[in-house]
Amino acid sequence: MTATALARKADLTGSVFMILAMALFAVEDAFIKTAALTLPIGQILILFGAGGAVVFAVLARANGCPLYVPDVLSGPMRIRALFEVTGRLFYTLAIAMIPLSAATVILQATPLVVVAGAAVLFKERVDWRRWTAILLGLMGVMIIVKPGTDAFSVLSLLAVAGMIGFAGRDLASRATPATINTLLLGFYGFCAVIVAGVGYAVWEGAAFARPTPLAAVCLLGAVTAGTVAYASLMKAMRSGDVSAVTPFRYTRLLFGIGIGFVLFGERPDLATWIGSGLIVLSGLFIMWRGKRRATL
Fold first, then answer.
1. I need a labelling partner for 148 at 20 to 30 A (CA). Which of 43, 123, 133, 271 fits?
2. What contacts 70, CB < 8 A, 6 or more positions away?
3. Mean pLDDT along residues 189-193
4. What are the residue boundaries of the structural domains of the chain, listed by start?
5. Which of these, 234, 231, 279, 227, lies nearest to 253 by C-alpha position?
6. Backbone angles phi, psi at 205, to 5 degrees
7. Which DSSP string corresponds to 223-273?
8. Sorting pLDDT into bands at 50, 70 and 90, what band is 150?
9. What is d(CA 108, CA 118) in angstroms, rounded to the nearest whole number?
């Protein structure tokens, strides 16, 4: 098999795993949204975080990785944990309180914020065309949120806060020490979810409830879908060219809207469709420009 054929095969493999990851993340969101109908948010976060942490702890130990290295306490890791707590908490609140499709669409602006943050924090070069695309994508978020109109809901800002939290987490991940591999990042990421749950449970003051059979299945399903999605995402990013694989992240938007339509009876309005289009087109343009610059 030629080098070109091998590269195409790797890109295809990466794309398939990326689509699988995005589908499973959307399924995870649906499970959490369903569980939130009968369980307090803090309890959901604690149980979900504990389940994911156990899975990654087992995987890490099975691969001979210690669960603690001194670099866990490094500055980038502390910042990453703070943003992980913020992202997980506010995005979970968003999918519990607003339509799943709207929360999913707003989340797709995360790569735009990451690129902007990399330019500001890491001095990465971003030309005026990509800055324009970033602004158009953020304009798409504004169109969906509808600030200053009668249709505006302050709850939609929960998804925006979650998106910013995840963007900050991704930026901090780029600065984490090389001694911390992806399994440890997954483990400590889910530990941060537990922290978010404990903090919100104390603030909310709601008594924990005994999970119904449906809620228990949803929590188990969320942990399973979330951990397999994470593993699929790592496989995708390591299988093919990043510029070929990354655009398939936006399939999460289709899965989120589809699940919201089928399971929760959601009907995205025209503003959501327009905002979605701006976000996706902006993200794809930024990736195309990045690939083009790399080849010049």
1. 133
2. none
3. 93
4. 13-295
5. 279
6. 75, 15
7. HHHHHHHHHHHHHHHHHS-HHHHGGGGGHHHHHHHHHHHHHH-----HHHH
8. low
9. 17
